[in-house]
Amino acid sequence: MTNVRPLPVEIGDITPAWLSAALGSPVSAAKVVDVNNGTCTKIRIALETDDPDTPETVILKGGFEPHSRMMDYMHANEVHAYADVAPHSPLRQPRTWFAGFDADAKQGIVIMEDLVARGVTFLHPQQPRPPEEVARRLEMLAKHHAMTLGRPEDMAPDGRFAWAGDLIDGFYRYGETILTPPVWEGFVNSARGAAASTRFHGLDWFLDTLGKLSRFGKAVPRALLHGDTHLGNLYIDTDGEPGFFDSQPHLGPVMAEVAYHVTGALDMADRRTHERDLVAHYRTALAGEGHTLPPLEDLMRQYAAFLAFGYAIFLVNASDFQPEAINTAYTARFSSAMLDNDTLGVLAGL
C-alpha cells in the first residue's frame, strides 16, 4: 500500500486512487454523500467498484476539523481501537476496512461499515435508555474488561497494548494546562454550569479531585476500557444486541467505565432507583468471566468517586465536540448522581 501515505488531511484529497489503495481494491469513482462534523469528522462516501466484496457506501472517519491537528493523539488512539483492540474484543463493533495513522500528517483515518445502510438503531444522549438495556451493555463491558483485567503484562512496554495511556492521567494533564481561571469561568457560567450544583463549581476543587482520582484509580481493579461509552457512541443492532463504536481505549479503573455508562445512559430517576443493582449486575457478570471484584459496598464507593470523572469530561467538553444541549444534559446527570452518592464525602476520604 505504497500510495496510502500521506493520509489525506483535506476532504478533497480523498480520491478514488487513495481509496483504492486504502481498501485494497479498485475504486473507479467516489462521491461524498454527507459530512458529520464534530470531535472527528464522519464522511459517508458512495463507491463505484467492480469488486463484489467492496460495499456501496462506507464511513470514513478522520481529522478534518480546524482543531484536528492539535488532537492527533485522539486520532492515533481510535486507530488503535479498530486495528489493535477490536479484533480481540467481544464488543460488537462496525466492520473495518482500513485503520491507519500518519504521524507526519498528524492524521488518523478509519474506513468502516456504514451502519445506516445496515439498519441499526443509533442511540442519542438526549434520549435516556431503560435499565434492562444498560444491564445488557454492562454484561458486554464485563467481557471486554475481563480480556485484560489482572494482566499488567498486556500494558507493559513490550505488551500488546503498551500504547494505551492512563484514562485519568491524560485528562488531569489537560486540566492543569488548559483550565485557567478565565477558561474555567466560561464553563461554569455556561448552560451546563447552570445545570450543575454550585458545590462543583470550584476550579481548585476540580483540579484537586482529578489528582485524587488519578491516585485512587491506580489502587483499584483496572483494565483496558472502551473509554467513551456515552450514548452517542452506541447503537442497537438489527438483532437487538448492543453495539459500540468510537472507542478511545485507555487503561483505567473498571468502575470508572461503569459509572460513566450507567449515569450517562439512564434518566436521573431511573438511575437513582437502579444504579446499585446495576453495579451488582456488573460485578456478577465479571465473576462469570472468572474475576472477583471487591464487595458491593466497596464498588459503590468507587462508583461514587469516579462519577466526578464523568462530570469533569462534560463540564469542560468544548461545544465543537458535542452540542451544548448534550454537554448540558450529561453535566446535569453527573451532578445529580454526585449529590445522590455523596461524591464530595467519598472524595474527602481519599
From TrEMBL:
<dbReference type="InterPro" id="IPR011009">
    <property type="entry name" value="Kinase-like_dom_sf"/>
</dbReference>
<dbReference type="InterPro" id="IPR052961">
    <property type="entry name" value="Oxido-Kinase-like_Enzymes"/>
</dbReference>
<protein>
    <recommendedName>
        <fullName>Aminoglycoside phosphotransferase domain-containing protein</fullName>
    </recommendedName>
</protein>
